[in-house]
Write a structure and sequence with these properties.
4 helices, single chain, Ribosomal Protein L15, Chain: K, domain 2, three-stranded parallel beta sheet, 14% strand, 18% helix, alpha/beta
Length: 147
């Protein structure tokens, strides 16, 4: 098979209707728009317009659900932040983290993320931990306690 031998499947290509090209075309004079009336004029209303009534797409409720009002929002800190700001064997709680300047607002609690490395043992008493953060704290000889 050669490129010049390729043809579209029978019936897949259809010629466009040429509107308003005389009586003989079968689509002359009013070009399929009928006589007078709003829909025969240029500038007819857009699809979905209901004559000033609130359209259906605005009457229906929005799709989906947003849980932002009820969702738990954590302030986050990294393992590398704990390494930099706290000494070995320190007890790290919300008050200590705020005092160290790692977060301004605690929101619904502070969550520890596993970014970075920890070499000092310390007891971390915060609201939530990622699995990798908990592993790193315990590997360094410390404790990760959910408060």
């Amino acid at each position: 098979m050669m490129l010049h031998e390729l043809k579209a499947a029978a019936g897949s290509n259809k010629a466009a209707k040429r509107k308003g090209r005389g009586h003989g075309s079968g689509n002359g004079k009013t070009a399929g728009y009928g006589h007078k009336g709003q829909k025969a004029r240029s500038g007819a209303t857009r699809p979905g317009f209901e004559g000033g009534q609130l359209p259906l797409q605005r009457r229906l409720p929005k799709v989906g659900f947003n849980n932002s009002v009820f969702a738990t929002v954590y302030s986050t800190i990294k393992i590398s932040d704990l390494e930099a700001k706290f000494e070995a064997n320190a007890v790290v709680d919300e008050a200590a983290v705020v005092a160290a300047g790692l977060v301004k607002k605690t929101n619904d609690g502070i969550k520890v993320l596993g970014n970075g490395e920890l070499t000092k043992p310390m007891t971390v008493q915060l609201k939530a931990f990622t699995a990798s953060a908990k592993e790193k704290i315990e590997a360094a000889g410390g404790k990760a306690e959910v408060k």
